[in-house]
């Protein structure tokens, strides 16, 4: 072996020894540092609570509900390469229970969805969830159902959105269609049984509660618009000189006028109303959400065109047939009425009631049947728009219920698919947000008119008034959930009924309002 070879071998052996020694020193230093960190964490309760254990760090799952994924942002969760079928199954598992627990109206439903998707499953952060909620607020239709669709869209695409919508609505839909058929078949509309008499005044008390809740959010200009909308709605409904069909045009005009007024006011140097500023831009997280939804702009435009064609076609066909004195197919008439109403109502909930009542009473049913169905709907999970299924079922059985439900739900579902791709642009437009202030204020005015109209229909005796006061107190003072308010009203009304205790049966109409 040459001298140079021996030197090379000695150099390699020396380097290997030094590298191993350095590595061992590094391990010792790291271990010492980790021990110090553990001692610091043990001494500091806040650090101990914020530091995950090794077991926690090793846990990962696709739901994003445990372990290391809890530490990830919503954007990182959206970037995960989870197979579509896995995400679709997640949507089914997550949304299936909601159809049975979503009581309490739109606001309660949104709170349930936030707890389910943001707090528990961590699919979204609050900012993303609020953004998706805002899309539904800016469109006609049931807001809670639209939020269900948009969040499922963001998780697993269009098919998941439709699936979540059906899971959320089907339980209430099935029960209300069954109730509508049974009431139309077995109940005398002019003499409701003892177990139904308390439902109507209890349901109306919840409409008053909704009006109060909506009204608290209005600024001073919104209060004026709400008041004008209420007065004009009452005038249209209570003047013999005005055609009953005028509401088909007056209600939409009130909404448009309200939006135009707040838009003009927002451009003043010192506006009367309070307006939120438009978003400065489209952040990366929202962009990721839109990519997962997977609907390009041109497809959104086609879907919007589909909605416009359906609305225009059905209105034109029905109007022309009536003008020419021809008989309109009953199911086409049901669909046209419901699709038109569903295309005009922003915010969902009780806002839809005055339009529904004007269309179906007395043409489809009596006021008592309408109010009994309203009480049943208030006690069911899901959106108030499911009330349409009951109305259609009373009028034309199961088929009528399905047609009415598809008609009123259709615009909201179609438009949420159409508008999501455009939202990143609309949210930057100040006129769009300022206009919505006026639309919402006018819509709240319609709810105010509905309170008075429905009260006059539901409260005919002293017993009805007693049920109304009891139910309203439970809802507005003690915060009792809507299903239990309706149940309490039904029980109290049954106890006071003439076939039971027979108390408070003086008819106010016959006695001129005197007790």
UniProtKB/TrEMBL annotation:
Which residues are listed as membrane-spanning?
Answer: 165-187, 193-214, 221-237, 249-266, 295-317, 402-424, 436-455, 467-496
InterPro entries recorded for this chain?
Chr_Tranpt_l_chain (IPR014047), Chromate_transpt (IPR003370)
Q: Where in the cell is it found?
A: Cell membrane
User: Where in this protein does the record put region Disordered?
Assistant: 26-67
- Describe its membrane topology: Multi-pass membrane protein
Family stated for the protein in its record: Belongs to the chromate ion transporter (CHR) (TC 2.A.51) family.
> What is the protein name stated in its UniProt record?
Chromate transporter
List the source organism: Stephanodiscus triporus
